[in-house]
Amino acid sequence: MQVFHNKSKVIITCNKRLSPYLQEEVTSLGYNIESVFATGIMLNITLTECIKLNLNLRCASQILYSIKSFKAVTPDDLYREISAIEWEELIDFTGYFSVKSNVDNPNITTPLFANLKVKDAIVDRLKEKKGIRPNSGSDANKTVIHLYWKNAEADVFIDTSGETLAKHGYRKIPGKAPMLEALASGVIYATQWDKKSPFINPMCGSGTLAIEAALIATNRAPGLYRMNYGFMHIIGYNEEVFFAERRILKDQVIKNIDLKIVASDISEDAVEVTRRNAKTAGVDTLIDFQVCDFELTPVPDDGRGVVVFNPEYGERLGVHSKLELTYKRMGDFMKKECKGYTGYIFTGNPDLAKKIGLKASKKVEFYNGKLDCRLLEYELYDGSRRPPLTAVTE
Question: Record's Pfam families (predicted)?
């Protein structure tokens, strides 16, 4: 099975509502997209081409390369079809593999049973062909096989990513309730920040938005922070392709850049977490770290830029009334201190959003986990109406 050279259906998954930004990323890398859906996109490419995508995409979760599509009504059908795949040409029988799945079939009560059937079929095939039983488990750091099974339609994929791409690898200290890196990238794309004007992130928490902004502006791809992917554990993998792509990532980094990014938080611990994560990412010198109440965040008087808040949403009981005042203060701060900027507040609480006291010019839909959220945009005029920021493509 020449998976590294033969084209097949490839599904790139992402969190719900990130697919428009994922689509832009994939297109900018020169790939033709066959279809777009709520949680991903579909292409027709080789497994080798998946290597470049794994190293470059910020908004993706997994990149799945299809090795077989088939009909299966019962678990026995599934086992028979999986057993017929030439696993001895894909998986090193002395190696390790895991199985993940997305299953909706009336003949089984739990996806774990489907996973077990897939594992059994692979193990039995390799034992028959090679005489040795491979190791398997739940870890996603080696070969990962993904099953999609809905009613009678089934697809088996190689998960070329392994561990999720949505985490970008630099955040060694998570902090309190951090925003997922892939979501932060999508939020920044949605602001249409020009990557040159100031980027202000009050109430920065663990700093994901500020760090991702610095990474995007300097063209530092997620692949710079990771050395293990699922595709590396498939028979036929050529490490020279990976290292060649990684050299391209290093060469495309913008090293000398005049950039103003401010990350502030009232918590000294939060700012220290942000600083340490930014240092791991190699962008700590590009960010102005400030320990202060958000109303004291220094805003460069450049006449334009973006200010992005990601405040608490008030999910816990007893904090709602306090947050009402905080949301009002955010609106006052943007109105008084950020004239000429475009303001953004990311929230999952529409009632609190009403307390901001400004009329949103745009509401962009996102999900943070399972929570329905909005990125609210505010045009903060300074006298005359200013044209909106436009995105600059690499």
Answer: RlmL_1st (PF22020), THUMP (PF02926), UPF0020 (PF01170)
